[in-house]
Amino acid sequence: MEDKFKDFYDTLKENLAAYNGEYASFIDEGPNLFKLLCDVLDQNVTRELRLDVCAAIAYYVLPMDVIPEQIYGAYGYIDDIFMSVYALQRVADEYGFEFLQDLWELETNIEDVMNECYEKSIEVLEENDIKAILTYTGLE
């Protein structure tokens, strides 16, 4: 019998399933935002936005990013979520939130989710962290 490999989305969901900490309300959106980023790549978006989205996806898998998951656990996804929302906001600026909502598989409003995730992540991240994230990914 062959072992089945989980895709990264399933791994993210599993990693965060048991987290009930202070930031759980928006950290739980991490896997959903990751999936949305991947779904955007299946669309006909501009080259520039495709690069932004790829940078956000890649940021999830970096072992030692600004707040590494290996050290901080679920808390370490806060910078990944910030990066996701940053890239997705660029997509929304170009194509509108309806474009993202059509790809969003949940019943929640993607604009509300993105706003909450952005506000909560910048409450935690310092200005230097934000600058480091955007510099590291080449988006600033």
UniProtKB/TrEMBL annotation:
Record has Membrane as a keyword: yes
GO cellular component terms, A-Z: endomembrane system
DUF1232 domain boundaries: 53-83
Localization, UniProt: Endomembrane system
InterPro entries in the record: DUF1232 (IPR010652)
Annotated membrane topology: Multi-pass membrane protein
Protein name: Uncharacterized membrane protein YkvA, DUF1232 family
Organism: Methanobrevibacter millerae
